[in-house]
Amino acid sequence: MPWRAPRYHRAVTTRPETSLAQRKRQLVASELTEAALQLFAHKGFDAVTVDEIATTVGVSKRTFFRYFASKDDVVVQFLAGMGADMRAGLAARPAGEQPSEALLHAVSVPLAACGDHAERVLPVVRLILRTPSLLARFLEHQAQWREELADELASRLGLDPEADLYPRLAAGMALTAFDAVLRRWSAGRAGEAASAPGTLIGQAFALLAPALDGPAPSKP
Question: How many whole angstroms separate alpha carbon 29 and alpha carbon 10?
């Protein structure tokens, strides 16, 4: 089966545009991403150069840098939609739902996408977790997601995220579970039911729920 870019990049690069030039730019960006991810999967991240990615697609190195600041950014774009999906997932939950249920559904959105496209996504997740520069970028994204989830959770509960500890603590717990699930999933094999992201995140939140749903946090 030919390599195809994972869901999150394709969601960003295939949305409708109004001009032919914009559609052409999207096509080039998608081709660069697919070529880069295939090369990374086969050769390892450090062994692949920007020149090699550009040559594979049939464009110049200069063209590559019109789309990406570095080869790291090709992989990091895979992460770009996850935080937005989590926050949107949390915002869509019923107002009276327990925090553990709401947060479980929020972090399950990107994990479900990972599980649905395991053969393509799993190599990228492994690449991110095993490459120090990419892992650092991933952790930067998680810090941003924590703030976004904390803000949304505070809004749902009528709390001040700057004055109350609960929103950031709860968001941090949810993302710790998310991170642990990705790491456990990456250590297994695609298709193993016991290590599927959806199964693992349910197990993780079963452990977290008593803390997340303890005495209701008081408003400052």
Answer: 10
